[in-house]
Amino acid sequence: MKEKRLQHLEDYIHSVGTVSLDELCEYFNVSKNTVRRDVNQILEKGTIQKVYGGVTSVTPALIPFENRDHTNHPEKLKIGKQAAALVEDQDLIFIDSGTTTRNIVEFLSSSQQLTILTNSLDVINAAVAFENITLITIGNRYKRKTKSFVSIDDLHILDKYNISKAFMAATGVSIAHGLTNSDILEYEIKKRIAEKAQAVYLLADASKFGKSTQLTYAPLQEVNVLITSGTLSDEYHSFCREHQIELYICQ
To answer: Any idea where the HTH deoR-type domain is (predicted)?
Structure first.
């Protein structure tokens, strides 16, 4: 219970930015001594810091794509390989922009006939080499930091595609706040795709869990398949069992 309370407390601080200890006491219906002990424990992680009368979220600036690509690279390759193994002939799949999702294409079979819908420049560049892949691109404004195309004049244009599998990325993943993202233009696309797809596949290495950013594009319980690496806490294992989320842990 304490671990769950700590996670919910940390997620709440990240969601509101800055909050007083009194507000935390009222919101979580606990004593100030309990809040102080919990806050001190979270402070050790470096994800929040003290301010006068309360605490504030420490949200790092968006790391450029080239730098993020080197973080946990072996794990991301394994996740991408596992995701590619779940693609079936005649699928229409969405591949999200991100340094993990981009790895899917290199592990796809050259004999499968499928359609890829994407806003990722790296996915586009990789997919053009496959004669068996029909490529559909979305987004009309290029975002250099994430090497993705964002902004769609009419999001309803996505409704015409029968997306069998959406392979999604997230900046942070938590039980309290679900799948989160920091950019409003990317958020709009992610949210629409997650709502439209027949199945949502979340690709996230272990470092993404227990974190959240400003915008939730889908609750965690709407994920059908979770592909990750490393070790997840018992809380996430229990959550996946409770909500029938198929879990793949790539070692």
So the answer is: 2-57
Q: What is the DSSP string of 170-235?
A: -SEEETTTEEEES-HHHHHHHHHHHHH-SSEEEE--GGGBT---SEEEE-GGG-SEEEEES---HH
In the prediction, which pLDDT does 160 show?
93
pTM of the predicted structure, to 2 decimals: 0.73
Structure tokens at 247: 């879990």
Angle at alpha carbon of residue 141, lines to 216 and 73, rounded to 5°: 60
Residue 230 in tokens: 């490393």
Question: Which stretches of the chain score pLDDT less than 70?
Answer: 1-2, 4, 15-16, 59-72
Strands of 215-218's sheet in order across? 172-174, 178-181, 215-218
Please check whether residue 97 is in contact with residue 169, taking contact to mean a CB–CB distance below 8 angstroms: yes
Q: Residue 91 burial by CB count (10 A; 0-12/13-18/19+): exposed, middle or buried?
A: middle
